[in-house]
Amino acid sequence: MDSEQLRAQLGSCRFSDLRWVPETGSTNEDVLALARAGEPEGIVVVADHQSAGRGRLGRSWEAPAGSSLLVSILCRPDLAPADAHLVTSAAGVAAVEAVRQVTGVVVRLKWPNDVVVERERATRKLGGILAESLLDGGRLGAVVVGIGINVNWPSEFPDELASIATALNHLTGVPVDRELLLVRFLQGFGHWYDQLGAPGGRAELVTRYREECQTLDHEVRVELAGESFSGRAVGLTEEGHLLVVPDGATDPRIIVAGDVVHLRQR
Ligand code: BTN
Question: For residue 149, how far is its CA from the centre of ligand 1 (angstroms)?
Fold first, then answer.
């Protein structure tokens, strides 16, 4: 299917201005440039290959050409900057739902932004989300939501990923339709994004996120700027922030932003 046919499949979806390119540096960088140039919400850039793909926390994101769904979406949500993370939550829930619809594989979310599967009491990463915001004065001018999902990888991962990553074709044993996955993801993301502006919609999104969150009830190591500690993840606040009871403590700490490592279940 070409971009035109995919657009037709997306119908009235808010995120349907699709531009699928064979190669780019980073789809997030491309969409940030479009956002800075004043382009409207709804643009979706997909690439078969990125030469400078970006991950969270300054990491790189690498995938062989054609192996992954590499997508960035231009959003202009009517949200306060402190609520921008809810756009990422909407993308996370849409991603796990889309993977389940297309492949039947049950995948879940590692707070805040990873799509994971639990196998043999270890958590393996299937995908990740990198959201980058542009502020306009004190307002949220744009949020670029980038997602990478490992779809059809070669049978062996590179050494540094072999024990921590997985791909949909490894889980199903058959090649998976990237285009169908994209369509289902964008439709689901459109739905949850619309909920952010609907009465009761944010609470509904956080409830769904909670249901899909593998981190809850897990022993974790929380990594913050300049500090790290271990504890048990016990819940999510109404805003979607993580509650972790540090080892030896009784009261939870609220984690607004940071990275979490799932420790092996005892
Ligand atoms: C993470 O570190 O887990 C987030 C990875 C996000 C990768 C995606 S791939 C498409 C988009 N373009 C990028 O450069 N990064 C994101």
Answer: 9
